[in-house]
Amino acid sequence: MSVTPRISARAARFAGVAAAATALTLGVAGTASACNISEFSAEAVCDGAQGVITVKDVDASGTPATITLFDESGKELGSRVVKGTKEGATVTFKENWAPNAHYRVHVKTDRFNVDDDIKGGVTTPATACATEKPTATPVPSSPAPSSPAPSASTPTETAEPTASAPESTSPAAPAPAPSNSASPAGGSDLAETGANSNTGLFAGIAAALVVAGGGVVFALRKRGAAQR
Questions:
Q1: Which residue, 71, 93, 121, 180, shows the most beta carbons closer than 10 Å to its own?
Q2: Under 8 Å CB-to-CB from 90, ≥6 apart: which residues?
């Protein structure tokens, strides 16, 4: 059975419609996944006592984007690179912002030709971030031991004992030995004439006389016995 030109044209028409539908579907899908400026948002918040500005990217295509922050005067404050996710990826700029200040946030990508500012920029809150002051914990001080106040009559320092006179170390003079012979009355005169100093000499002379007398008596007795 031969294919007529009419059937062939109808088949070609169906193929063209299918190709167009496929192209339209792919185009819509590509547009849906493309990165655009509406997927970026920014806000000013406080991180403790530090003011910060955060930029969130919810681009599901994961296209890297360069985020640049500018102040009201147009001065560039810094740049960050963010790679978006469906849940949202965030970059943070540490900026100690003042209340009611305005910042401009610019987004640029290499794909999809995004090169624009986030609509409206960022306006900071009317209240600055609170400055946290560390609370010092008071340390209980132990009470000092109470000491009685010194009275006027009581000296504060103990007086040192007065050093006593050193005892004499020289031996006491020995008492004179008593004389064997009795001192006659008026011994003080004898002492003045030096009689007491010759007592030994007189005793020796007396003893010699006694011995000599004894010898004479013995000789006389012997002589008398011989004459008888």
A1: 93
A2: 54, 55, 56, 57, 82
The region that residue 121 occupies, defined by phi over 0 for left and psi between -120 and 50 for alpha, beta otherwise, is: left
Length of the chain: 228
- Closest alpha carbon to 112 in 42, 37, 40, 58: 37
* Distance (Å, whole) CA 39 – CA 85: 10
φ, ψ at 61 (rounded to 5°):
-75, -15
To which H or E segment does residue 55 belong?
Answer: strand 50-57
**Full-prediction pTM beyond 0.85?**
no
Which homologous superfamily does the CATH classification assign to the domain defined by 37-123? Answer: Immunoglobulins (2.60.40.10)
